[in-house]
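CORE FACILITY INTAKE
Project code: CF-77B
Contact: R.S. (postdoc)
Sample description: multi-component assembly, two entities in total
Requested service: structural model of the whole complex
Turnaround: standard
Below are the sequence entries exactly as provided by the requester. Do not edit them.
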Amino acid sequence: MTVAVEFHSVSRHFGPIRAVDGVDLAIEEGSFFAMLGPSGSGKTTCLRLISGFEKPSSGTIRIFGEDVSDTPPNRRNVNTVFQDYALFPHMNVRDNVAYGLMVKGMRRTERLAQAEEMLALVKLEGYGDRKPAQLSGGQRQRVALARALVNRPRVLLLDEPLGALDLKLREAMQDELKALQIRLGLTFVFVTHDQHEALSMADRLAVFNEGKIAQIGTPQEIYDRPRTRFVADFVGSSNVLPPALTRALGGPEAWSSLRPEAVRLVGAGPVTGTVTALRYLGSGTRVMLDTDDGTGIAALVPAGQPLPEEGARVALAFDPAALHVMEGAP
Amino acid sequence: MRSDRGPLSLRLAAIGGLLFLHLPILLIFLYAFTTEEKSYQFPPPGLTTKWFGVALWERPDIWPPLLLSLKVAAISTALALILGTLAAAAMSRARFFGRDQVTLLILLPIALPGVITGMSLRSAFGILDIPFSTWTIVLGHATFCIVIVYNNAVARLRRLSGGILEASADLGANGFQTFRHVLLPNMGSALLAGGMLAFALSFDEVIVTTFTAGQQSTLPIWMLNELVRPRQRPVTNVVAVVVFCATFVPILAAFYLTRGGSETAGSGK
């Protein structure tokens, strides 16, 4: 395998703020890599380190093996789809898409032909003469994508590109982006704070917290075996169980996580609790309960199964394989 | 029924105020055509267009001040466009200690009374032994022309989404290409408007000029001197009408260029 982007103990500090703090990562060529984390966790700064708009305070960044510490953004073979699209308001869509080719000195007829081709790829044929202001949010997003792709970057960076779209459009674009990435065989680095988006689209993802990578792995690894309480909590609204409760449920005395869908409610068992709230989700119902030692636990009861009433006493049962003991306690 | 009109008294007051402000301009026009040359008699005893001919053919003293004014305005505007734009670009990008104070210093010349600017410049020229010339006038005018351009440029830069400059670099453009293809087209109308306003302001400036001109006469100063003479007074009005028309067009153009403009502003969102 070829490593497309490599971080070697990269830090970026803004005064006392450690936006990115000692990050190591390797992104494989042709993969869809997601950077997931809450706002302020350092994921966007990492993306800007790859694009070159930020310089590392320490550490080295390599793009296809080449140290890019002193390479300005315009000389890196990576392109970005910006969060607010950043289309050029004074140019029509075709000129926007052809911009990268124009500044490289490509002849007008040739670059406009390539721009049209790219517009067709993102299903915007016939929109070339419009101004960005005349497009919808979803269409602008596609123009931004075409404008980046026309340069045939070796790595495409996407900074929360779907954040401004409504749910339906966002899901459609997720499928399209994924399909496009597979078709072009490009390396995509995708920044998002939406865990569903990251889990469903990425081949591998890094979960960021306070400038550090909390965990890096495939979506399944991260969802099933979160390494820290932060990851368990952020990636899947998982139940985080303190050591005493883990032990009471038959595990070792350590912090552990338990997916809501693995919890069943039964009549009697070693751990009991009181139902505090019911939340109807359509495909099931989320039952919130407090165990007798005061830990809040969520159980996902699939649609069609009997539901307890609020205030009822229930016992917990679960598949022992679903109980995941975490290495990093805090 | 929706009432989007103010009460009658307010409307009358507003109309009265506008008339009070603008009727004198019509009087200037009127007296350019009067047959009476010694005093401004109202109503004029008769109307004639002969003063336009007099101004054009018989008064060579009009031309040097007019040329000087045009030259000063052109140089001041050019200077202001360069320095004002650079200052605006620096201030909108950089975050540094004392930034607000520097902004205040840039804006100060337009808030300061012209007499103060004029006096301070005059004494500075005196101390440094700089003889009065076109350039001393230009220097005085550039102080406030820069502010006009700066204000226009800063307002436009603020509305531009900063992302498009990064997008340009991301797509492979170097600094010059970004300036040429992205920044300039988006700043152009603001700079044009600022330049026109600066030109108009410089063209009719009197106060600072009286302190920095020495023996030279710009057009406004020539007019001021002309008014106290008893002969051919309407010629001054003819010049005033021409100056009015010449400055009104750029100001009007500047107004339309900077109005609205949401389509030239930020993208996205």
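Facility notes:
- DSSP finds nine helices and 18 strands in chain A.
- The first strand of chain A starts at residue 3 and ends at 14.
Invoice: internal transfer
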